[in-house]
């Protein structure tokens, strides 16, 4: 079977970027998704260009940092940042969502070419107001989308390429080597799967801006464990990225 190990939050900060690249160079990470609106985005695009074998998709953002567009008031708080949480999307203007996501996708293409696939921060791409817009973009450019429980049937109906399974529980207290091995057992039953992870080094931007900070270091150390590749080989799991499973 084929497994994509995707590091979210590429572009969040240079510390996160360096951690992701460390997990790519010396661990099992094969893919990353880039946040074009965050301070480390330019650094991430440079790393992408220098490392073409890393699959890089777009991590669409509606809940972190500032929007690229200035006139999307239903998405913003009084300070000009995205509103926190996902509940605000229930009342957000669909055209403002479309405008911001289109701007983010365009920024990615301008700086890095087409992404390998599409996912999102806090899985907002599965929200009922967001999903149709993301599917429209994916169809236009023949791109895969990360599956989640809320959107798996919708992706099937739209004939959007995705994996057979998403392992999303390697996170927080569950980000342990033992749990990762448990996930490999589950993953081996499918033809294709994605393991979502969040490795990174802790810099000032992470400490001050993200509640998920030192945990990124813990993930990084596990993902670099040399014995993981033996565990993959034992289960005949081949590491890849979304660019190699396109139809």
TrEMBL record:
Keywords attached to this entry: Carbohydrate metabolism, Hydrolase, Magnesium, Metal-binding
Keyword NAD included in the entry's annotation: no
Amino-acid positions noted as binding Mg(2+) in the UniProt annotation, renumbered to this chain: 59, 121
One BP term from GO: polysaccharide catabolic process
EC number: 3.5.1.-
Pfam families xref list: YdjC
The keyword GTP-binding is annotated on this UniProt entry: no
GO molecular function, one term: metal ion binding
Enzyme superclass (EC): hydrolase
Cofactors that this protein relies on: Mg(2+)
Description of how the protein assembles with itself and partners: Homodimer.
Family recorded in the similarity comment: Belongs to the YdjC deacetylase family.
Functional summary from the UniProt entry: Probably catalyzes the deacetylation of acetylated carbohydrates an important step in the degradation of oligosaccharides.
Protein name: Carbohydrate deacetylase
């Amino acid at each position: 079977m084929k497994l994509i190990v995707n590091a979210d939050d590429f572009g969040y900060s240079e510390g996160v970027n360096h951690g992701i690249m460390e997990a790519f160079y010396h661990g099992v990470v094969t893919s990353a998704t880039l946040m074009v609106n965050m301070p480390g985005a330019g650094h991430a695009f440079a790393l992408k260009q220098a490392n073409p074998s890393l699959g890089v998709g777009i991590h669409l953002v509606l809940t972190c940092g500032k929007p690229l567009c200035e006139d999307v008031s239903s998405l913003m708080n009084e300070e000009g940042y995205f509103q926190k949480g996902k509940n605000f999307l229930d009342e957000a203007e669909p055209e403002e969502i479309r405008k911001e996501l289109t701007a983010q996708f365009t920024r990615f293409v301008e700086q890095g070419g087409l992404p390998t696939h599409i996912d999102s921060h806090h899985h907002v791409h599965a929200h009922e107001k967001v999903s149709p817009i993301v599917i429209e973009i994916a169809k236009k450019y023949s791109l895969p989308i990360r599956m989640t429980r809320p959107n798996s049937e919708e992706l099937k109906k739209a004939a959007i390429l995705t994996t057979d399974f998403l392992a999303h529980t390697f996170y927080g207290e569950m980000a342990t080597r033992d749990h990762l091995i448990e996930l490999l057992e589950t993953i081996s039953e499918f033809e294709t799967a994605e393991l979502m992870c969040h490795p990174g080094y802790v810099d000032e931007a992470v400490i001050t801006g993200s509640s998920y900070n030192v945990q990124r270091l813990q993930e990084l150390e596990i993902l670099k464990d040399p014995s993981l590749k033996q565990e993959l080989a034992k289960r005949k799991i081949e590491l890849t990225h979304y660019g190699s499973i396109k139809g």
